[in-house]
Every structure is written in C-alpha cells, then in structure tokens.
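Can't paste images in this forum, so I'm doing it all in text. The chain is below; anyone willing to post the predicted structure tokens underneath?
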Amino acid sequence: MVLEVTNTADGSDTIFRGDLDQHYHSTFGALQESNHIFIENGLRFAVQKNRTGSGISLVTLNILEIGFGTGLNALLTCLETEKLDATIHYTSIEPVPLEEFLWRRLNYPQLYTDTGPAGIYQNLHLATWDIPVAISPRFTLFKVRKTLQEYIPGELKFDLVFFDAFGPDAQPELWTEQIFRKIACAMNQGGILVTYSVKGIVVRALQSAGFLIEKLPGPPGKRHILRAIKP
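Text version of the structure:
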C-alpha cells in the first residue's frame, strides 16, 4: 500500500492511496469538501433539525463516521461543538489507520491562526482505539479499528452518519443495500446520512435500504452530493 501526502487546490493537504488509485479527499479542496458535505449539510443541518424538534438550545448528537482517514472530519466536527452549542459522541470506523509520520505531515492545524486545533488534531490521532476518549468537554471520540463489515453496532443509536469511505469503484463492497440496511438499523428514526457519491448504484442501494434521498449542490469540482434520511 503506497500512501503519499499531496496538496489540494484550496491549500489543504490530502493523501493519495496508490493501490486504490484514490485520494482521501477532493483534489479541488480537501478542507472545503469536508466543510461543505459533512459540516454544512450534515452536522449543522442535524443540529438545527434536532433543535427545532426539541425546542431546546443544547443539542446532543451521536455521529457515526465511515472512514476516520486523515481525521479531518473529526477535527472540523470537534471545532464546531462550541459554535453550535452541541455535545457530540463521535464513533469512527477505520481498519487501516495512518501511521504517525503521515498524519503529522498533514497541514490541517496550520490552516488556523490559533494553536487550539493543533492540540485537538494530535489528540484525535493519539486517542486509544476501541475505547471512548474525551477530546474536549463536548466531544467524545470512539475510534473502532475494524472494517465496516466486521463492525457490530452497540445499543447506541446514531443521529448522523458521515459516509466517507473510498468510492464505489474502488470499494464496491461498502456501497451496497446490505451495508446501508446495517447502518439504517443503527440509526434513530429521522437520522441523517451524508456522502459525496451520487452514483446511480449508491442512490438505488440507499433507496432499497429504506432511505429518502435528496441531491444537494456539491462543493467545487463536484456537481451534487447526497443527503439521505431514515424515515
């Protein structure tokens, strides 16, 4: 497996995985892609939806991420907790964690003017696997070192899913009706799934698994993204 750090068009780094011919993020901009798909159309949408439904200001969300990868989605989510007045329990599945020399080369902490994100980013990667770790008073990380097929959800039900696996051409086994049914069973009613892929096989698999599909405008370099709701 060949992994190489590369820079994307918005100045943020990503990693190229040679054996799959896949980048971990969009080459048009790793940071803006994660912000657009998973934060703006995932996290912020879910917080507003839960806040409107409950009538309370403080929101607690259980998030499942498929693919911890570089840790960028987890970092951005953790940084949003204070802004959104939210408490997050964040479960992330990753069978092949990055080695330390690679994640330390990524420039995400340097994209911010203060030092806080650097400490959070390091703590996310150094957090012990397979046990919950409090990264901040409002963000608890539970990294699971398993494949999605091996993962067995516990009693915790998820409100939001970041489906950020490698693409369906590279890992078709992760984008099936069976997988999406498994995820749906681990979600609360009204739960939200967001992903970057809008391929027909992905849409059909999600619909067959019972999700309601919404195509949304994508980030630079991508026409559309998907948001799916468990009825």
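The chain is about 30% helix and 30% strand. The longest strand covers residues 187-195.
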